[in-house]
Amino acid sequence: MKKIIYLGVSMMMVVLAGCSSSKITSSWKPNEDNNNAQSAVNFKKIVVVGLFNDSSRELRQQMEDQLAGDLKAEGFNAVTSLSVYGPKSFQNMKEGDVINQLNENGIDGVITISLVDKNKEKRFVAGPRYYRPYAFYNPYRPYGWGYSPFYNPYRGHYETNANFVFETNLYDVSGKKLIYSAQSQSYSPSSVGAMADDYSKSVVKDMKKNNILG
Length: 214
Prior knowledge:
By secondary structure, this protein is α/β, with parallel strands linked by helices.
């Protein structure tokens, strides 16, 4: 009995692990270009900046917190722009002033998150499956009945799913250059928190895979 329960739990964990709504669709790093090859940069302090409008405050908060938290879990010193500079961080500032602010706080790495596309798609979901009886002939049991499944098209409904495309860039402040860029897509997330969690894990995984942070 215990073996059956353990097997069921294990299968459930595999299913849930494959249900992530976010994935990296493309990524770039300088060493893919032979003329700009470089090794991983060891940052002392990284700030995560969500480049969203004021109406997306919750989305910015969740995305910054989740990515900074996952980077900390990997052993990196990461902070959010909201916690250090507030909701108006870097707005209407020149590049030189931004760099000065970063240097004053000991920040040498900047990760920006921007929403580059959001679209909706509508799809029809069939109604519940029912079973209807039918008669069949069996020489050993001449009066038999079976059941065949069928869908009721009038009980279906339409679902609208939202898809989000994010761009993530990592900048080396001292070198004033981009060292990593990735695009990711989130498919119909169940909530902002779930989307931020899936997005962050996919980005950190891709950074580790490409040895971006060492």
